[in-house]
Amino acid sequence: MENLKPARRRFLLMFLLLPYWVDGQTVCTPESRDRLETTLLRLSNMDVSDRSLNDLTVEIGSWFLQTPYVEKTLELPGEEQLVINFLGLDCTTFLETVVALARIAEQGDCTFSAYELELQLIRYQAGIRKEYPSRLHYFSDWMYQNQEKGMLTDITRSIGGIPYENAPAFMSSNPGFYAQLSNPDYVDRLRAVESAIRVRNYHYIPKEAVSRYEENIQPGDLIAITTTIPNLDIVHVGLAIAREGRIHLLHASTNSKEVEVSSKPLHDYLSGNKSQSGIMVGRLLSQQ
Q: Rounded to a whole number, what is the largest CA-CA distance in the chain?
């Protein structure tokens, strides 16, 4: 490879590192597939008959502690594919992975195909993988769409939330950051998604009020962190987890570069970041 021109060498290296193609629609490395199969076997041996989805989510999420943080694992070249990656997770793919596993455990179908279908249901508009814009790119839209599917309830307002001015436009305003948005049609379609988000009613709990309403948050609830940045909606996500009577965040951390439990309670964790304004809270719904 030393004799190859630099551009050709980079191309070959990128090719060698591309995920293993399972069936032309899903991509997963052999190493990720091995870890997934091990996880599915572990799930199949669990007695989940008296376990809530929140309880399952906390336990399964804990299995991923110290998994490396890796961003943009879904941004592969070419047409949109369903990416399964158990070796590197960002905050959103960590949450999606755990929720999909918890849901198939409750269903009693701990198979690769069941996981594949569940992940697609969670990640895409109407649960159908189409082109790049069909992915739920904005997490406030992810929450809304998955509530419409009957998978969760946005409980933010009911536990003390106040109106949240939500007008994301980052992707359509910065198409150069996304290779797929070289297609003008995709930009237009994402602009339509952003317009739909703007006309909905969202709520959040300001970060200074989180400790006041913390008792209403249950371990396993989905935590979406809102922001003061005008053209974004959510800047980080994770799972609520209890530690010494306080709610902490189980998440794929950009600071430690791995899945961890925040050392500080959620209220204090938020206080240390000026761009984080508060939280939205989602609660998974049982399928039984």
A: 64
Regions of the chain with pLDDT less than 70: 1-24
Tell me the CATH number at 189. 1.10.3670.10
Domain boundaries, position 36? 6-284
Tokens of 146: 């998955």
pTM across the whole model: 0.91
Selection from 116, 96, 124, 125 nearest residue 237 by Cα: 96
User: To which residue do tokens 């799930």 refer?
Assistant: 43
Question: Residue 31: which of 20, 41, 42, 23 has the closest Cα?
Answer: 20
Q: What is the C-alpha separation between 93 and 281, in angstroms, rounded?
A: 17
Per-residue pLDDT tens for 73-84? 999 989 999 999
In this prediction, residue 3 carries a pLDDT of: 39
Residue 17, pLDDT score: 41
Provide the pLDDT for residue 25: 86
Per-residue b/e over 47-61, b at no fewer than 16 CB within 10 Å?
ebeeebbbebbbbbb
